[in-house]
Amino acid sequence: MNHYKLIIVLLIFLSSCNKEYNTIGLNLIDNDPFETDLEEVPIFVKMKKVPPYVVNLIQTFQLGQYQDNIFGKTDAVYFSQISLETISPRFGIFNENDEVNGIDGNIACIPEEEKIKDVFLDIPFFTNVEDDDNDGVINSYDVDSANPQSDSDGDGVSDIVETQTGQNPLSSDTDGDGIPDGEDEDSVNPDSGYTVYDLDSITGNEQAKFKIKVSELDYYLRSYDPNSNFEKFQQYFSNNQIPLNFSGKVLFDDEIQINPNELVFWNEDNPDTADEDESKTLKERLSPRLRIPLDKDFFQKKVIDNEGSEKLSNNESFKLYLKGLIIEAYDFDEPLHMILNFREAEVRLVYDFKKYNKNGTDDDTSDDEIEEEEKIYNLKLDGYRINSIKNEPYPSNITTQISDTVNNPQSVFLKGGEGIMAEIELFKNNDGVNLLDEIKQKEWLVNEANLTMYIDQNMITSNGGIVEPNRLYLYDLKTKQPLIDYFIDETNGQKDSHKKIEHGGIIELDENKKGLLYKIKITEHVKNVIRKDSTNVKLGLVVTSDISSSLNTEVQDSRQIEFIPTASIINPFGTVLIGPNPNASDYNMRMKLNLYYTKAKQ
């Protein structure tokens, strides 16, 4: 009986609580004291021309020509010091002294007579082999990179099945016998083992023809500045004319074309082994690259013939002796701009030398013979690596807009490299009046804040179009660092477009796949500004190719700006944004800060 009484009491209690909760809830819904809204806050913008910047401390380099109809033409020349793969190199088997004087008791120590066979300058491309669905077809060529059962070559057999059975998923007739792979019961892939690559960081027509000129650098790139009593590192700027004024012997000058395929080399057949064909055995595979043949006599005299000399005894002596190379691309039938993997670039010296062969009979010299063997020695393109950049003068409509006297322009021009950046002040109107105190008095609870920038497609289209940057980068001009929203965004994919995606700055496209706008989320930064207006510093805005880097580079003339983010200088792309003070027809797309907030109802 007591149990029943307890249950009844609990039911009454719960019922009364539930009734009270519902009443309170209804009152909240009916009498919500808060509301959310959007405020479009004006910003104050000035454009500034980026002066020549220090190029000997950056890590990514350009070659070739980029051209658009808004900003003009940019040409990039590369030059670099060279270093030895190993100091005091020994070519062949024995060192030079032993070759000349011999080794007592060693009949195999003979003059090796090393002779250059080939010299190649190899500059690898940056490449992409991402395969999201692991079906053997990289994303760039996969008809559906999320589905391994997709059929990229349309032969009725899925990509993954063709990969597993040794057929080519990018050829409907792998062995070229006229029978489609889906019907062929005896199909062998002649290209088995090949890697298919997608070339990255190339702008323009990859099939364009152009000339490459490789010259000896006749200028020593010193490490320390004599004007600082050799206490500071020497700075070389992007507008240097070293390649023009200090070119030595020309080592190659001819027309080339990009080969996007893997380079595959086979061994030479040995005529003494009749039962074996060495030409069918693999020698080497190399990723796609610019492979440029260089003057063999030059490297024979400069390197091979100096075996054992002081010139090759250490890299400092070698860099004084052979100062480097200049690489210039020119005479394009269509402009072509390349960001290349110069960190992996090398000069490959392929040479033959004489070798004493005892044929496995140490005590019998009757079958001994002198034969030739091939070896490779590499010179590295490292030490100081430098670009020399030449820009056409900007048209007058841009030059007048980036004057220091122009505030809140109709259009905002941005360009990478030795280009144009924007200086932004938040909470400031066209007259330069600070609106921050007014906003503070409203006591808003900021939910989200975005800097929104629409692309001026009318101007871009009317000028013939440009290559639009994938991203914009916003940073604190005082501290030279990204904003707090950048640091708290932990999204981090393999590609630049997959990193810091909450912070944003990534181009958004319209239905025609043209650039519509850029939006950068700066909620935490704005909250800090409202709480403490001393944090309302001037912000810098630039185009970028790598959001993951927050390094900065000094500039030559610091009267306007003191530095430029390194991420902005390694490509020449540009864009045009609708400014904070546009024509009436573009007013709704003006450059502004969108502030989403919650406030108490009046």
Features:
single chain; 602 residues; alpha+beta; eight-stranded antiparallel beta sheet; five-stranded antiparallel beta sheet; 12 helices; disordered N terminus
Characterization of the model:
The protein is α+β, with helices and mostly antiparallel strands and 602 residues long. It contains twelve helices and 30 strands. Strands 3, 4, 9, 10, 11, 15, 16 and 19 form an eight-stranded antiparallel sheet that branches. Strands 1-30-22-25-24 form a five-stranded antiparallel sheet. It has a five-stranded antiparallel sheet with strand order 5-18-17-6-14. The model is unreliable at 1-30 (pLDDT under 50).
Instruction: Kindly name the structural category.
Output: alpha+beta
Radius of gyration: 33 Å
Report low-confidence residues grouped into runs of 5 or more. Answer: 1-30
Shape: globular
Average of per-residue pLDDT values: 87
Relative helix content? 10-25%
The helix count comes to 12
Largest sheet: 8 strands, antiparallel
- For the secondary structure, the number of strands is 30
Straight-line N-to-C gap: 57 Å
- Strand content range: 25-35%
Q: Layout of SSEs?
A:
Blueprint lengths: L1 H29 L3 E8 L1 E7 L11 E8 L3 E9 L2 E2 L11 H6 L13 E10 L1 E3 L30 H7 L32 E3 L1 E3 L4 E9 L24 H4 L1 E11 L5 E4 L15 E5 L2 E5 L2 H7 L12 H7 L3 E6 L5 E5 L5 E12 L11 E12 L4 E7 L4 H6 L9 E5 L4 E7 L9 H6 L3 E10 L2 H6 L8 E6 L7 H5 L15 E6 L5 E7 L1 H9 L7 E6 L7 E3 L8 E3 H4 L4 E5 L13 E9 L2
Antiparallel strand pairs: 1-30, 2-21, 3-4, 3-16, 4-15, 4-19, 5-18, 6-14, 6-17, 7-8, 9-16, 10-11, 10-15, 12-13, 17-18, 20-29, 21-26, 22-25, 22-30, 23-26, 24-25, 27-28
